[in-house]
Amino acid sequence: MAFFIENRSLMKKHIPNLLTCLNLFSGCIAVLMALDGNIKAVTICVLASGIFDFFDGMVARLLHVKSLIGKELDSLADMVSFGFLPGTLMFTLLLKVFPEGSPLPYLGYIVTVFSALRLAKFNLDERQTSDFIGLNTPMNTFYVLSLPYIADKYPNVILNPYFLIGSVLLTSFLLVSEIRLFSMKFNSMDWKTNKFRFIFLILTVILFILGQFMALPLILLLYFILSAFHFNKKTI
What is the pLDDT of residue 4? Predict the structure, then answer.
């Protein structure tokens, strides 16, 4: 009986880490699919990574099994799924606008470098225990993921070297910026405390239904605007 209880406790301890590993596994497949040009497969994998990334922390809190190794593993998984992957997506987009053999498409991996800096900063910054300072890597990845979808309808806008390199530089800056953004962690369901989170969720669903992945840049802009209102209200 004691053996059973001990093993059940051990299994419970590793459930969050299993979810984190699934995040990493999905991210690895997404990178390969991105290099193959299979955006639909990339989308499925990114959504899976996002779900696993959201629930690993939640499960750890519910089971009271937070650990240092879990925190480090989470960052390593995010580095692939939400760091290496968006850099690879930008690389593949830049390949389409520069001549064959040009080194400029590798500029897409600046996003990966700044994602690593953002994750390292997040791990050390005690100000980010409940909210974010700087654009979080999953949200940035979803923005980058939207670009191939928008390019299908508006190739002249997206498949433009100035736009793509501008996106690389802007998102890299936002990743390590001091801009405050709310997280989607709900400590309660109180409307007054979480008003802007609820508004963001509702408008995100509406925008996604109307525009699907093409709506992601607008959703990102909405995130910045509502975060500004959220934190301005908290300082009043």
Answer: 42
CA trace torsion 119, 36, 25, 124 (10° rounding):
0
pLDDT at position 11 is: 61
CA–CA separation, 118 and 137 (whole Å)? 8
Q: Measured between alpha carbons, how far is 79 from 23 in angstroms, rounded to an integer?
A: 10
- Kindly report each contact of residues 76-79 with a partner whose C-beta sits within 8 Å and lies 24 or more positions away, as own/partner: 76/24, 77/20, 77/21, 77/23, 77/24, 77/27, 77/49, 77/53, 78/23, 78/53, 78/119, 78/137, 78/138, 79/115, 79/116, 79/119
Task: Provide φ and ψ at 38, rounded to 5°.
Answer: -95, 85
Model confidence over 67-111: pLDDT tens digits?
Answer: 767 677 888 999 999 999 999 999 999 999 998 889 999 999 999
The answer to whether residue 192 scores a pLDDT higher than 80 is: no
**Which CATH code is given to the segment(s) 2-181?**
1.20.120.1760
pTM over 0.70: yes
For 131, which DSSP code?
Answer: S
User: Domain extents for the chain?
Assistant: 2-181
